[in-house]
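FAQ

Q: What does a record look like?
A: Structure on top, sequence underneath. For example:
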């Protein structure tokens, strides 16, 4: 039986999160601000491992987390995160 959001299990939900293809420039932006992964993690209230996974493209952040990251860097969200070609629709 499907959950209210249309997914039948947590595994399906996770697959959708990990299946999205998105590039990001977090590592570059961190270098510009002289921030470590730990520094950024503390500013956006997540673990260093989460930042590492986002940078590596293994995890697509929630909208709220992506907005927090953009705010730390003081740039538009679109300047940090970009969908891979062919993943627009």
């Amino acid at each position: 039986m499907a959950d209210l959001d249309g997914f039948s299990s947590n595994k399906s939900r996770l697959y959708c999160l990990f299946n999205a293809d998105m590039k990001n420039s977090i590592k570059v932006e961190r270098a510009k601000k002289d921030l470590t992964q730990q520094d950024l993690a503390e500013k956006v209230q997540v673990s260093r491992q989460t930042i590492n996974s986002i940078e590596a493209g293994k995890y697509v952040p929630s909208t709220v987390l992506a907005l927090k990251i953009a705010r730390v860097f003081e740039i538009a969200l679109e300047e940090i995160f970009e969908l891979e070609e062919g993943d627009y629709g």
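Q: Is there anything notable about this one?
A: The beta strands are 22-24, 81-83.
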